[in-house]
Design goal:
Blueprint lengths: L2 H14 L9 E8 L5 E8 L5 E9 L2 H9 L6 E4 L11 H5 L36 H14 L4 H4 L6 H15 L5 E3 L6 E3 L20 H12 L3 H6 L1 E3 L12 E4 L6 E8 L9 E5 L10 E3 L12 E6 L2 E4 L2 E4 L25 H9 L5 H30 L9 H6 L2 H19 L9 H5 L1 E5 L2 E4 H10 L10 H5 L3 H24 L5 H20 L2 H13 L1 E4 L2 E4 H7 L11 H4 L8 E4 L5 E4 L5 E4 L3 E7 L6 E6 L1 E5 L4 E6 L2 E6 L4 E6 L6 E5 L2 E6 L4 E8 L2 E9 L6 E3 L9 E5 L5 E6 L6 E6 L6 E4 L3 E4 L3 E4 L5 E3 L6 E4 L5 E5 L6 E7 L5 E8 L1 E4 L3 E5 L6 E6 L2 E5 L5 E8 L2 E6 L4 E5 L2 E6 L1 E5 L4 E6 L4 E6 L7 E4 L21 E4 L1
């Protein structure tokens, strides 16, 4: 019998069992996943009065630990799996169904049974005179926005965790307004309602004020102790995301990841110009009296059905002695839209940003980013109190894994939320114009004091990215934070020693130590951040500790400081000499490093530039140190052929010759907000005003080719392929009816004035001509335009200018491959249908139901490349190499018919003679040569990194921010 079927039968049996009259006390357990991803088990007992009591909570790191515990304890309790997580562990049928030692029934409650009290106690907690409806929901929203603040539960000394805030607010409002109320308990699934009254509460005095009503407070604390985020999900329904529906009292459940968390919308203002459409209020674990946290809404993951989202509570329905909840589809503003595949209107867009934009389409994400940084500061300050209180508690009590102390004072979920928010604010800033948001004060001004030392946000985030901190409650505060100088040195020493030993074993076994190399690369990254943002006194302590700590790696003993300097030179190839494997050859090389880059550019001279969001650093060092070549803020780029660094700083364009470090600058007269790097020049512009400047650096130095405003703004730089021989600039300032075309090829610079319409654009740029949509071919040699109306349908022309692909819209997805004569006349060579992929001299056709075909245009002839019958898609042809997907969904690189590489992941070209393979299962990125030689590097990377750098590396170990230069 399958686990799912068995669980269904058990829960069906539960639902069918009537209430039992005062059975013997029994115990059972319910399992779910906790806020830190651990398996949590709540142990309950069915009391003599028929109510449940939670006895204890235990946690387990994995399912095997839990199963061992169950095997040793099944004689004293039964286990039921929460339906949300019924497949987390494989409980044996006899374990689930075995009766307890006293022989009593193995099922205690029917799901949905209402708990009441005996005799006179059955009058309940209050008499309900009102039923929930849309008007009461509006009153509930108003009450939260006007009467609730961060100190509300602190004022009334009511302990809360995350889900408790929502339950408590709902029950207090219902009690104060004599509304019907019902909540489902975890474990049994029974309902506690407004007419429930446990016998032990009946003698407690009542009062007009809820906080003075001891009977109500006893019931409320019972409810908060027996509910959690996953039981709340069953009482909730999803809402549509629009103004009016998203209001105070709406709550967000996060069951999408490995944890559960509840946040309540607290204040809303969805008018234009407002910082955020809404704020949330929340508590956390452990359950205690505390001030609530108020911040922005930062969840990035789109929720899954029945796994959370923005929700409201379903209304209770009472019919005689039974209670049910209104079907969600009948509730106000019900909608499943937030779960839909097309809810995120931009690919990989963060969920919270989509929600914000649906509520306020004019939202200023600059302000959102500022709020995010302030929220991270608040989260670190909240963590400070947790660490301090936890250290005091754990010094006197057990905080071992699985104990209640561990659950209360460990911080893995809190720490992960900080890291997630940091990642999200980076995504926000990528969508802002560079320099639009000055985050420097928020990052670099000290804001928190840890053990008597002040720190800034930049250093804390660097520690979080490197992982030098600890979430374990038994660790000393210095280790919990991992930002003091000595703590950094201790962390680095332990990490390098352990990873180094594993690396040595892997290399001896002929394996690529990619995981170990990735771990070790975090050490110099954090130390580099410490040199920039660490307190001077702590930096001195770190430096001193590094010089005296000795490590033995690869059979050689050096100080920690010496190993850190060697790390960039480690070679990941097990066939390389041992000295190279452990970086001894580094004295023969310079290295170039850029921290936290977004995009990377390589020049012909070997320089590398990493562009960050707002600031950047480019260094060239020899072994033992060196000086930065250039640091600054704003937009940066490289003119590849000239080894010239281009930077926009305010309203100036700065140019630096990287060989001589000589800098030239020119005042533009306008503030640019876009930089486009060309092979032989650059374009700076202001998209709002249409102003531009086209510049070039040549043998005689720096020169502006043209400055002014665009008559219209196609603002396209026309490139052909990934490394065009020629670049043309089109659509700049010209008299009415005219356009200026610039050719920046080796024969240039040249400019041509042509007759043009406002909707004209340049589609191709070859050695011979430029294709102008709706006009014809501009011949570069003469500057004349050869009329040809087919250019209006142009899709792609090849570099030689001898062949073009046209789109035939009237025939559906059909493409005509044309040979182009010197006079602009076109001759049909072949018709294609299907998905087309083009290269500089190739065409790939992926037609449904057929094997993909690849063609190359050589010597004025279209030649088919040898096909493979087991391939279902080809996405690139690079020289003689074909990148394809097989029928078995494997990524393949082949040279004509010979398979060079095949694997479960995907491959992309990574510079002349090299390709990258990304293994989806392991998250490893490999760099190899087209010749099929040994792995040159293997790096653990996030999937988002793959879209950034194009890598050209002669040899050696590569991380995503480093290139080796001989």
């Amino acid at each position: 019998m399958s686990r799912r079927l068995l669980i269904s039968l058990i829960f069906g049996f539960l639902a069918a069992v009537p209430a039992l009259a005062a059975p013997a006390p029994k115990q059972w357990m319910v399992q779910y996943k906790g806020e830190d991803g651990r398996l949590i088990v709540d142990k309950f007992r069915r009391a003599q009065d028929g109510w449940q009591d939670k006895i204890e909570t235990r946690s387990f790191a994995n399912a095997s630990e839990f199963l061992e515990f169950v095997e040793n304890n099944t004689k004293v309790f039964l286990v039921t799996a929460d339906p949300e997580f019924q497949d987390l562990v494989d409980l044996r049928p006899e374990t689930r169904e075995r009766p307890s030692e006293d022989g009593a029934e193995s099922v205690f409650f029917g799901d949905g049974q209402e708990l009441t009290g005996p005799g006179k106690a059955a009058q309940g907690l209050w008499e309900a005179r009102n039923k929930w409806d849309a008007s009461w929901e509006q009153k509930f929203s108003t009450w939260i926005s006007t009467d609730i603040d961060a100190q509300f539960f602190q004022k009334y000394k009511l302990a809360t965790d995350c889900a408790d805030v929502l339950y408590a607010l709902r029950w207090i409002f219902a009690r104060n307004n004599q509304l019907e109320m019902a909540s489902r308990l975890s474990g049994s699934g029974s309902f506690v309602t407004h007419r429930s009254l446990r016998g032990s509460w009946a003698s407690l005095p009542t009062a007009a004020d809820w906080f003075a009503d001891r009977r109500f407070m006893a019931a409320l604390n019972y409810i908060l102790d027996n509910t959690y985020t996953h039981s709340l999900m069953t009482d909730s329904y999803p809402i549509e995301i629009k103004p009016g529906a998203v209001a105070p009292g709406v709550y967000h459940l996060d069951l999408h990841r490995e944890s559960g968390h509840t946040q309540i919308i607290y204040r809303t203002d969805q008018q234009p110009g407002i910082l955020l459409p809404f704020l949330i209020i929340q508590s956390t674990v452990p359950r205690k009296v505390r001030e609530l946290s108020v911040q922005g809404f930062w969840y990035t993951a789109q929720p899954l059905v029945n796994k959370g989202g923005l929700l409201r509570m379903r209304w209770p329905e009472f019919k005689g002695s039974s209670v049910t909840l209104t079907n969600g589809s009948s509730m106000p503003s019900f909608s499943n839209e937030q779960y839909a595949a097309d809810f995120l209107r931009k690919a990989n867009f963060p969920y919270n940003q989509e929600v914000y934009l649906r509520l306020n389409p004019t939202l200023d994400f600059k302000k959102v980013a500022e709020e995010a940084y302030q929220s991270m500061q608040t989260m670190f300050k909240d963590r400070l109190q947790i660490v301090e209180d936890g250290f005091v508690y754990c010094s006197k009590n057990s905080c071992a894994p699985g104990s209640s102390g561990y659950e209360d004072w460990s911080t893995p979920t809190r720490d992960k939320r900080i890291a997630d928010l940091n990642q999200q604010v980076r995504l926000i800033l990528q969508n802002l114009p560079t320099g639009a948001f000055d985050r420097s004060p928020l990052l670099h001004d000290d804001f928190i004091e840890i053990q008597g030392q002040s720190y800034n946000l930049a250093l804390l985030l660097a520690a979080w990215q490197a992982g030098s901190f600890s979430s374990e409650p038994m660790d000393l505060p210095a280790k919990r934070w991992g930002v003091s100088g000595e703590a950094i040195a201790d962390w680095a020493s332990v990490l390098l020693q352990k990873a180094g030993a594993e690396r040595e074993q892997a290399l001896k076994a002929g394996q690529v130590p990619a995981e170990q190399d990735q771990k070790m690369s975090t050490v110099p990254a954090l130390m580099s951040a410490y040199q920039k943002d660490g307190p001077s006194a702590q930096l001195a302590l770190m430096t001193a500790a590094m010089s005296v700590k000795a490590l033995k790696l690869g059979g050689e003993t050096l100080s920690l400081a010496q190993w850190v300097r060697r790390l960039p030179w480690f070679v990941s190839d097990g066939q390389a000499p041992v000295a190279q494997q452990w970086g001894a050859h580094g004295a023969n090389y310079d290295w170039l490093r850029v921290d936290n880059f977004v995009s990377t550019t390589f020049s012909q001279g070997g320089w590398m530039l990493g562009q960050r969001l707002a600031d950047w650093t480019m260094e060239k060092r020899a072994l033992g140190g060196g000086q930065p070549v250039k640091t600054g803020t704003g937009l940066v780029g490289l003119i590849e052929d000239d080894d010239t660094l281009v930077q926009i700083d305010g309203d100036r364009v700065l140019l630096t010759d990287l060989e001589t470090n000589h800098t030239l600058d020119e005042t533009l007269g306008f503030t640019p907000n876009q930089l486009k790097m060309l092979r032989r020049g650059f374009l700076v512009s202001n998209l709002a005003t249409g102003e531009f400047a086209l510049g070039q650096v040549g043998e005689n130095g720096f020169a502006w080719l043209e400055k002014g405003k665009a008559a219209w703004w196609p603002r396209e730089v026309v490139n052909l392929g990934s490394a065009p021989a020629n670049v043309l600039m089109f659509g700049l300032t010209a008299p009415a009816g005219k356009a200026r075309v610039w050719d920046l090829s080796e024969a240039g610079p040249k400019s041509f004035e042509i007759s043009a319409a406002s909707n004209m654009s340049a589609k191709i740029n070859t050695e011979k001509w430029v294709g102008l949509s709706g006009a014809g071919f501009l011949v570069k040699a003469t500057g004349t335009v050869l009329p040809n109306l087919d250019v209006a349908r142009l899709y792609q022309c090849h570099a030689s200018g001898e062949s073009c692909l046209l789109v035939n819209a009237s025939a559906g997805i059909q493409y005509e491959f044309m040979q182009v004569e010197d006079d602009g006349h076109m001759t049909l060579q072949k018709i294609f249908k299907g998905m087309i992929v083009t290269g500089e001299d190739s065409i790939v056709v992926n037609e449904s139901g057929q094997n993909p075909r690849a063609y190359r245009w050589l010597s004025r002839s279209l030649t088919e490349i040898a096909p493979q019958s087991d391939e279902k898609f080809i996405w690139q042809v690079k020289g003689e190499h074909i990148f394809a997907i097989t029928n078995g969904d494997k990524a393949r690189l082949r040279d004509k018919t010979r398979t060079v590489f095949e694997g479960n992941g995907y491959i992309r070209e990574a510079g002349e003679g090299y390709f990258e393979y990304f293994d989806e299962a392991s998250g490893l990125r490999y760099l190899r040569s087209f010749a099929g030689g040994a792995v040159l590097s293997a790096t653990k990377v996030d999937n988002s990194v793959l879209s950034s750098a194009t890598i050209r590396v002669p040899f050696g170990s590569l991380t995503s921010d480093r290139i080796w230069l001989k």
